[in-house]
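Now read this:
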Amino acid sequence: MDGGQWALSTSIRASGIYNPQGATTSTLRPGALSATGAAPTQKLAYGTATGQVNLIVAQDRAIAATTAVLFDLYTGTDLKDLAGLTAAFRHLRSIAVWIVSGGDTTGIRMGGAGLNESTLWFEAVGDMMRIYPGGPPFLQGSPAGVVIDATHKMLKVENLGAVAATVRVQIAGATV
């Protein structure tokens, strides 16, 4: 990649019908209430310094039922960049993973790779988080990023359920 930027944003919109306190029935009333939160955004420009990226991965990966996939972020052989080339990160600035299709209520677990684990932005080695079909994504990042090296390089994505799932993996970072 020799130019561009990464912009990751999320938004939340909640809506509903207001019934006065003490109402015994749920009647539809005119004037539904809604609230929309500001969209938190992470914007990273092109480059390799803090707040910049020069390497982006964006791809879907199928994970069989009760199977774990390990991604080596350092060698880059497991994930390819936008041009289909090896994606060898040295700094990760942002990661987003969500279930595109399949899966079940047991979910997909991120983290806990064991040997040479990258903790990403978790507090400690072995920390994990689950995501679910139809649920919010796994999101982590910071302008400074986290270091990826030969001993902090593995990302584990594990399908805990009995149904195959396809996850979308989007990662932005730098090669130095």
Observations:
- The chain has a mean pLDDT of 89.
- The first strand starts at residue 5 and ends at 9.
- The chain has no helices and 13 strands.
